[in-house]
Every structure is written in C-alpha cells, then in structure tokens.
Design a protein that fits this description.
Helix content: 40-55%
InterPro entries: LysM, LysM_dom_sf
Shape: rod-shaped
Structural class: mainly alpha
Strand order of the largest sheet: 1-2
Number of domains: 2
Protein name: LysM peptidoglycan-binding domain-containing protein
Largest sheet: 2 strands, antiparallel
Radius of gyration: 37 Å
Number of strands: 2
Number of helices: 4
Oligomer: single chain
Distance between the termini: 108 Å
Strand content: 5-15%
Length: 121
C-alpha cells in the first residue's frame, strides 16, 4: 500500500485535516479558573447568607420569668401542679423544660428553675 504525501502531513485521504486537541499547562489553568469561579462565588454567597439572617431578632415576643428552687422529693409534675393548679401540668412542664433547656423530666433538690411569669408563685 502506497501512501500519498498528503496522508503523511496530517491530512486524511478525503482531503480533510486530522487534528488532535492539545492543551497546555496554561490552558488547563485557565479552564480550571473558568470552571471553579462560579462554584467559589456560590460558596461565598451561601456562607454569608446566615450572617444576615442572624442579625434579625430571634423572638419578637420575649418571655418574662422568675426563678423557683426545687425542693427535696419534687418532680416537674409536682412543681407544675404547685405553681399552676388550674393549668394542664403537661403544658406547664413543656414550658419549664423549654425555658431551662432540660432534656429529660428529672430535676434535683436545690436546683434553680426559671418559670414563666404567669406561673410565678
């Protein structure tokens, strides 16, 4: 099989040139910048969004409260019944737990608990 001179110089037999894409180190760096720029911009925009939201007041209706001291043998249920005899103890316990950041229902004698002002003795 005999090759023509055009086939030896990068041309296909149909007269079209075959070319290979070669990317240099500078081209790779430029491509990386083009691809990563929107990702970095989005990350910066998202990271600054919570800071704007945290500037707003958390609760527009602050709760006023007073403190009571847990006596020996008391539970949250007995405290709720003592400070709010006409209210549902479950609701009072929920409010006391939320106000004091309690995980469970156990309290210790001598512990100081914040109670909503409406239930203050």
């Amino acid at each position: 099989m005999q090759m023509t001179s055009t086939a030896l110089h990068g041309f296909a037999i149909g007269g079209q040139r075959r070319s290979r894409l070669r990317i240099t180190a500078r081209g790779r760096a430029a491509l990386a910048v083009i691809v990563l720029a929107p990702v970095v911009a989005a990350a910066i925009a998202l990271s600054s969004a919570p800071a704007v939201a945290s500037d707003a007041p958390r609760d527009s209706n602050p709760v006023s409260f007073s403190y009571i001291t847990v006596e020996s043998g008391e539970s949250l249920w007995s405290i709720a019944e003592r400070i709010a005899p006409k209210a549902d103890p479950r609701d009072v316990i929920t409010e006391i737990s939320a106000l004091n950041g309690l995980d469970g229902a156990s309290v210790s004698a001598g512990q100081s608990l914040a109670v909503p002002q409406q239930y203050a003795p």
